[in-house]
Structures are given as C-alpha cells and as structure tokens.
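Hi! If you just cloned this repository, the fastest way to understand the data is to look at a raw example. We've pasted two of them here, unedited. The first protein comes first, obviously.
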Amino acid sequence: MEENKNTEVVQQAEETQEETKPISKKQARINEIQEKAEKTDLVFDGTPNEKEYRSFLLYNAYTSPMGIFTVFVGVLCIVLFVVRGNSMLTLNSYTLLFVGLVMLTGYPFFMIFQAKWRAHDKKAMKIRYTFLIDGVKSNVGNDAFFVKWKRIIKVRETKYDILLYLDNTRAMIVPKRPLGDRVNDVKGLIDRHMVNRKRVRWKSL
C-alpha cells in the first residue's frame, strides 16, 4: 500500500515537472501566433508592386526545372566556348558564346520586364486577401478566387512575398508589405492549416 502511494507521488511530481518545464521564446511565439490565427480571420488589401512581382518571377524561374535547365545550358555553352580556346574560334564558337550569354542574362531581364509590365498594368486592381479557417480567398473587383488549404501543395517565402503554390509553377502571390506586423499571424495560420507541414518553408519566424 505504502509503495503504491509512493509511486503515485513520484508520478504526480514528474507530471508537474513536465507541465512547468520552460519552453523556448521561439516556441512560445509560435504557440501565440497559432492560437491567435485559430480565433480570427485575417483580411487585408494590397496589390503586388514591381519589386514583389519580380521577387516571385525570379524565385519561380530559378527553382523550377525549366529555370535550372536554362542556367545549366547557359553555363555549358560558356564552358565549351572557353575550352575551345583561341586556336579554334569559329562561327560555331561565337554562337555558343552568344547562346550562353542570352541564357544567363536574357532570362532574368525578361523576368524583370515582365514584372514591370504587370505592376504598371492600368487594368490591375486592388486585391483583397482573406485567410480563413478552410482556405484562402482573393477578391479582385467583382471576381473572387477561393483555394482550400488541401489544394496548396507548398508554401515558400521570399524577401517580399509569401507564395502559395497550386502546382509547380502557379502560385498565389501574397505581398508582405501591406501585412505589416501581421506577417507572423499569417504564417501561424498557414502553419496550422497546411496538410503537409514539411512543404512549408519560412525564411524566419
């Protein structure tokens, strides 16, 4: 009987110790964000600007199979041009050099031009983003686009954006600028509702 009593006391002491075990500041912040995100929907207005479009396009270009292949071909052409040396400089050699330079410099310049065009498009309208418990909604004028959490295959963060990917190349661009100090609230909501947490990558929290 006495042994049972002692065992119970030890178990209670261990449970109390576990409950009072201090947690790190980072974990406390994560818990706070997730609790807040669970109770409230986040709504904000904002249209991606040139810098935010450029950030998405360049990130998407150089992390996609097509972007990686373009860089590989560009580097390969430059290497072949150098390996041939001065003694074998022919039209074909200069063609390799030209193709390599276009691949390595033309591609990013095209992305920069595309970002500028999108940002300064007169038809561009303000977007309202709504982060809900069951998904994310974006309203542009009279049009609404809703994505359930399970449809988002991965989440990535750049310096200026949060990118919600619907497939390997298409993503909903969420600019961080209009969020202000609510960026971490959005991250907490995404962390809580994403089906596959391993597909979420943040720069920092």
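Ok, and the second one:
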Amino acid sequence: MDIHIVVNKKKHFYWGFLQDCHQVVFYIGPLEIDVYLRVDSWSLNQYISQWESFIEQLHVNGKSCLILEFYQDSKILEVFWYLFYKYDKKVIVQKVRICNDTDDTFKNRPKIIPKNCYQLIPEYKKYYPIYGDVHQVCWELSPQQFKNLKLRITTDKVRKVVAYDCVRAKISFEGFSQLVNMPIVHWSVDDYKKQWKDGIDRLEKHDSSCLIIRVVGKPYPMVERLLLYKRDNKIIVYFDYLISLDYQDEIGDNIITLKNCYDFISSEQKHLEKYRVDEWEFDIGDFDEVDIEYIDTLIEI
C-alpha cells in the first residue's frame, strides 16, 4: 500500500488560518485526510521533504511521523501529525495534535526542520494530554500535596494577547508549574480569585469540582479549567480546554459563570475518554513508498 498525497500547488485563502494555504489530501489505506497547509513556518518544499523521508524513518527507527500542519515561533509550537509505531509485523497509526502557547518552554529549542522533527516523536501511549504544555493526562495528589496547589496572579499589568486583554497567572502544584495568559474580558480578576477559593472549598462536600483558568464568552466561547476528582483519598487533577465544537458538545450555548461552572463537570471516566487517541492498525508491508501527485485546482472531497 502506498501513501498517496495529492497537493494543490496553487494557494487559496483559508479562513481558519487567515492566510493563503495549499490544499492537500492524504490517503493512508482507508484514511482520507483533507488539510489546508499553512506555509508560514515551513515551505511547501519542506513539508514534501518530510513526507518523502518518513517511511525510511519508520523502517530504520521503528517510529515515524507525517506532519500535516506546523507552526513555530519564539513562543508557540503547533503540530498536527500522524504518528507511526512499528510493533512486530504491525504498524499503529495515531492522530495527534499538540499546541503550546507558553512563553518559556521553547525559548532555547532549536528551530524544528524536516531533518530533526523526528526527535519530537513521543513514546507510544493510548492517552494524550490535550492542554498545550501538559505532558501527562492527570496528576494524583495526596491531601497534603493538594493543599500546596496554587493559582495566583503574577502581575496585574494588562497586556493584549490575540484579541483579549489578559493578566498573567501561575498554576503550580507537586512537580508542575505553568504560566498562563488569563483573559479579563468576561471575568474580572476578582471573579477568578473567588471561583478558585469556592472550587477548592467545594471538595469538602462534593466528589468533584473545577478551577477556572481562562474563560471567554460569545461570540467565540472558550473555557480552560482544572477538573478535580476525589478518588481513594487522593485528588485527581486534569487539565481541560474547550473551544469550538468541543465547547458546544459539553457546554452547549451556555456561557461559563461563577454560578453554573460546576454544572458541566462530567464523570472522571467519561472525561478520561477524551484523551484517547484515534488509532488504526496496519500490516508493516502496507508501507512501501510515498506517492505525491501535484494538481492546480481545488480538490473535491
């Protein structure tokens, strides 16, 4: 089975990235993946060189990747890729998206290019964190460790991030620390502080709670939060980020408020399933070569 890739050499404006992109369709066995390829960090030729080398990497190193979307600057790394893992005579393929928007994580990282991108491939796992720089799905904290969980404002100085006025906040607990840009458009700083206190106190009488990290209202609602579950005398902490269709599925047309924020906490098991990666299995002999076809018109899917 060849990996067949159809590339539209002409760029077209794509609203999702607010820029001109190449339409590309990937055919991997029964999988048909339609993407708009942004070329602000990698050129089309760089993507193509990565696609052409990925099968050799799979056979030599036992794991590889196909990068469908890539963006990197001094503060942000975004990668949408398919990961390939060789086990015996099988190849497991996973669809994974990572996004990091913290200030410090990639400060000293060299620029990622097709030749070194394979160094980013993680070890195989069935569950992946959704939140940008969070490298595990959840944390299990003892009552004493949970007491050390802190969410605090690091500076009251307001700065514009994307389209929103934000202040800086820091989340820290056992073995973890994260800086975030906290929008103060729909919630005030005092709203966040009150919710954090109420959310922690809630666990005295309930088995679940949440701490709101970022919230934005209409027309593009979004919420980022810590979900907290009591289990076996421990507090299980998950990061959760809801936007677009994910927000619609869980929150509906509601806007998160101080009063209703606890109404949208699913069971822990249901929440865990959100982290399960889409996965497919193929025979190792199915991956022989990459066939790239170039056209000049939009591709009908």
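That's it. A detail worth noticing about the second one: Residues 102-106 have pLDDT under 50 and may be disordered.
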